[in-house]
Amino acid sequence: MASPCMIASHLNTFGCFSSNSTGLIYSTPPSPPTHLKRTRGPGFAVRGEAMAIEKLGIKVERNPPESKLQDLGVRTWPKWGCPPSKFPWTYTAKEKCYLLEGEVKVFPEGHGNEFVQIRAGDFVEFPKGMSCTWDVSVAVDKHYMFE
């Protein structure tokens, strides 16, 4: 007898088969929790609980809960800001930051015209070694921490 759980390729779904006195019954399992739905195309991951994305090596969490910011001590981190401008930057260490104000398009080197947009209310992680260009359209004020 076949395994009770099989891939029904003709339906393009994953489901389970069970038997009763009349034969096999197909049932679709419940959808996985949102946080387990990980991909949305190449190089783009999504976690639904806190609306966090990772794109082009940059992790962005939109509007993280205040409890996370408190646990990390974000409001005690140094602050940095800049007016609208465009400039190159290389991260010599991993940076975590929380944008209080601003809007920026970050263009990681080696990805052509692809960019990651960050804005006020975003918690962002930049990897060590990343070179990029910041295109600041709205003045930035942020808390930051290098690891």
TrEMBL record:
Pfam families: Cupin_3. CDD domains: cupin_TM1112-like (cd02227). Residues 70-144 form the (S)-ureidoglycine aminohydrolase cupin domain. It comes from the Eukaryota. InterPro entries: RmlC-like_jellyroll, RmlC_Cupin_sf, UGlyAH_Cupin_dom. This is (S)-ureidoglycine aminohydrolase cupin domain-containing protein. It comes from Iris pallida (Sweet iris). The lineage of its organism: Eukaryota, Viridiplantae, Streptophyta, Embryophyta, Tracheophyta.
